[in-house]
Design a protein that fits this description.
- By secondary structure, the protein is mainly alpha-helical.
- The protein has six helices and no strands.
- The chain is globular and about 45 Å long.
Length: 153
């Protein structure tokens, strides 16, 4: 029962965060986004699982929460810290999803994601300047996470 209540609440707060962002209500976003991640953390911890998968999901969610908080603070000052937190979160998700399916990747799942990452990079590349390396690394990590998630699904 608690699992169902937390799941519905997480969905509600996630939708609220999306709506608040769309409506331009920053305070609503600043409330709804962390509440959503905290609720997801409660769901993960409440599951009672303590294997590599569950532990790395909790680590990933925690790092995502930290990244959101950094980006909610002074964006100029904490932007890189927020992105780095999200990068570490995605690496945790790679470990979790990879563990769930023994780190196998099928090329038919991965190639479309890599093609999208390359196309997206081509759109962004002109304005990147010194951020070129970090953007490439981030796109590769997100693509690998997507491949592992698709394989685990």
């Amino acid at each position: 029962m608690l699992h169902t209540i937390l799941s519905i609440f997480a969905l509600f707060t996630a939708l609220a965060a999306i709506y608040c962002d769309y409506a331009g209500w920053r305070l609503g976003v600043y409330l709804a986004k962390p509440i959503t991640l905290i609720t997801l953390l409660l769901l993960a911890v409440q599951s009672g699982l303590y294997d590599v998968y569950a532990t790395t999901i909790v680590i990933g969610l925690t790092l995502s929460l930290v990244g959101d908080v950094f980006l909610m603070l002074d964006r100029q000052r904490y932007y890189r810290a927020g992105l780095f937190s999200f990068l570490l979160a995605h690496i945790a998700y790679i470990v979790a999803f990879g563990y769930a399916q023994r780190y196998q990747v099928r090329l038919e799942l991965g190639l479309p994601l890599l093609a999208f990452a390359v196309a997206y990079y081509r759109v962004l590349q002109r304005g990147l300047g010194r951020e070129r390396g970090p953007v490439i690394a981030y796109l590769l990590v997100i693509s690998l996470m997507g491949m592992q998630a698709l394989e685990a699904a």
